[in-house]
Every structure is written in structure tokens, then in C-alpha cells.
Design goal:
Blueprint (H helix, E strand, L loop, with lengths): L1 H15 L1 H9 L20 E5 L7 E2 L12 E4 L5 E2 L5 E2 L12 E5 L7 E2 L12 E4 L10 E2 L2 H7 L2 E4 L1 E3 L3 E11 L4 E5 L4 E6 L7 E2 L4 E6 L1 H13 L2 H9 L4 H8 L7 E4 L4 E6 L6 E2 L4 E6 L3 E9 L11 E6 L7 E13 L4 E9 L10 E8 L6 E5 L4 E2 L4 E8 L2 E6 L1 E6 L2 E6 L6 E5 L1 H22 L2
Antiparallel strand pairs: 1-2, 1-3, 4-5, 6-7, 6-8, 9-29, 10-32, 11-26, 12-21, 12-25, 13-20, 14-16, 14-19, 15-18, 16-17, 18-20, 21-24, 22-23, 22-25, 23-24, 26-31, 27-28, 28-29, 30-31
Helix pairs in contact: 4-5
Amino acid sequence: MRSLSGVGFLAIAVAAGAVGGYWYAQHPPAVAMPPAASVATTADRTILYYRDPSGEPYWSLTAKKDNAGRDYLPVFEDDEPGFGPGGELKKPARVTTAASRKILYYRNPMGLPDTSRSPKKDWMGMDYIPVYEGEEQDDGKTVRVSLDKIQRSGVRTEIVDARTIIRPVRAVGTVTHDESRLTIVAMRSDGYIEELFVSKTGQHVRAGEPLFQVYSPDIVTAQVNLRNDGGAGGEQRLRNFGVPESHIREVRAGKNPMSFAWPAPVTGDVIEKRIINGQKVKAGDELYRIADHSHVWVIADVAESDLAFIKIGMRATVTVRAYMAQPIEGEVTFIYPELRAETRTARVRIEVPNLDGRLKVDMYADVVFQTGIGETPVVAVPASAVIDSGNRQVVLIVKGEGRFEPRPVKLGRRGDGYVEVLNGVNKGDEVVTSATFLIDAESNLKAALQAFTPAEDSK
């Protein structure tokens, strides 16, 4: 409403007083006063207020003079600027005089939900503002805001488009062994350890390297049988005892060693050692446990509220405290089926390469899941465009010529400064992204006036 917005601005300026005076003094309103004859005669034009002739931030509802004796300049209703197609300021193409319009009612100049059927003043002596026919929208859904007020408030808009919502989910985790890369060394027959070659926990071994020298009566008996009958049955018996192929070839070549070196089955680090020199071992005893640390797991604790965003195959960034500047990329391979009742978190397994051995078991890690990457784009609006009252979310749709429609929306995921809109907004709509409080206040005022006007009419 053009007249409404003009005096509304005055009321705000008077209330602000010296608080806002300095800013406006440094940035006087860039509204040029056109000659009165170029639009209409002064008698046919509505004076909204009077402003200081020197450009100082002072206004008056009545004609007056400044300290230098100069007359305050009248600001007419049709002096409010509009916007051209290129964003430039322009004057309205058509001016409607106050005499040619029908006054519907008068509203409180301070924006209170108070109306009157006849002109009156409020308790501060300010005139009630006339509301003319045509300034209210017929559909009852839109609200009009002065283009000058839109410019001063810094209202910005954006076209709604489909985009991918990328929302980082953060969690903490712990580095653990890759369980699929653990190996236990055990004999399948009784024996005696004659010499240890790997005698320390944590020692790194390579596949094929000797771990210990062992004598086993059962293996020696099988060797004798192989030499006597020379058949495949003897070889199979040795293989059943876990004897390496290199030792079987020696027996077939005519040798009959009483003991032999037991080789490491895999490359890795010895994480457990349960063997010493001279020890008698029984079939099935665990002698060594070897872990391949070229790949490790990171078990992350993800909050229950974020669990729906985690998918198998998703990429995750892992950063350990010892190497904060060297994050490592991993892949989500499993989501554990149980939830921890104490922390309301779920465990998520991430497989991470560790070729340089940088990651150590039991290290703490910061994990970031980049959710949404590669997913189908969805209709989304900037997060700043949403007016959230707690139980109701609204966006302001631009209708043109200073008109806006508050529209309820149903929201989905949030991320990267945008919010998914499930219902209420379509691709191609234009929404307000800044100064939404101004238009929302105008909308709430209009709703209050519409609810109050029937009570006035009934009197």
C-alpha cells in the first residue's frame, strides 16, 4: 500500500530518533523531488510528510521551518520510486490523485491493529493513515509493500531451482583392525618349539618368512610313510597337518628332516604372541596372531538423528588427531544393526587405506560424511528464505509490483545453506531471501486488520 508504506516509514523514523539519525545523515535518501507541474498540481496531490530541506534525517507531519528559516519540503505520494526492468529507479508511470480514490478506512500510524471509519489522531497526535480502495488485494493472499521501502530494506530474491542438498554429518570414531585381515598361526599336530625367529609382539613379518623351528612326531611319521609307499596318500597326510609345500618337496626328494621352519602365512604385524623357546604345543593352540594393517577400519558413532542420511558406499573423510592436516578418504561398508542405548548412537564401519602405516589402532578420529553427493536434485530454497515460527514454516513468493504471497511449505533435508521443499513451492518461483521480517510484519498486520475490520463495520 503506497500511502501506508510512506507514513509507516515516517513513524519508524520518528521512533528511531537519534539512534538512526547518524546513518541516514551519512546516506540521505536518494529520492529526487520532481517539479510539481510535471506530475500534477499541488492541490491534486497527497502530501505524505515534510522533510528537512538540507537532507538531514528530520521529518514532520505538518509544514514547518528549520533553524535557518527554510521551509521543510513536501514529500508527495507519487514521489515514491519504483524499479525499472534493469533494476534502475524510475517514477510511477501513472499517478492517481487522492480525490479520485475511495477511502475504505483509516489505520493506526504505528502499525497497531486499530482502525477507524473516520479520520482521527492517535494518543501521540499522529493522523491515522487512509487505506484506499485497490490497495488491498482481492484474493486475500498477497500483501503489498512500498517499492521505496523494499529498496531501503535491502530485500533480495532468488529463483527456486532444483539442486543437490549436500549436508555434512559429523561423528567421532576409533581406528580398529580390519577383521577380514587377521590371521592366526596354529599347528594341527603336537610338537616342540626348538627355536623362535619371531620373538616379539609388534614385529613385522612377510609371507614365507620363518616364524619358528618345530619338531613334531606326527609329521615325522607321515614323512616316513611317504618315503616308504611314495604315494599321493602320504603327501595328503602332510598337507592335512599344515606342512608347507616346500617341506613336502624336500621329503619327495629323499630327505627326512626331523624338524623344519614354520613359515608366516601372511604379511603383517604380530599383534599377539603365545609361544616361547622349548615350549610344547598342542594341535590347535594359537601361537601368533598377525594383522595386515595396509587397510584398517574406523568405527564411527553416528547420532540417531543423522542415521537416515548414511548409506552404504558413501564416501567419508577421516582425520586423526596426530595428522590434522592430512585427512584420508574412506568408504562406508557397513552399518551395525544395534543402537547404543547409553549414547543413542549407531556404529558405522568405514574402510580406510593405510599403506604408509600412519593410522594406528585405537586412534581417535574425526569423521565427516558428505551426504547427498550423487543423489537426485530436489526443489530447494535458501535457508534464509524460510520464516519458521516453530510449528509453521512460510516462504514469501514474489508476485511483482511490490506484492508478495506468504505461502506455507513442508520442508525436508537441510544442507549447504539450502532447505529441501517437499510441498508449497515449485521450480521457477521467486522467493524473498533477505529482509523477510519486513514483509512478514506487513502480512501479519494485514491479517490483523482484516480480522478487526468487520467489528468496526458492525457498529
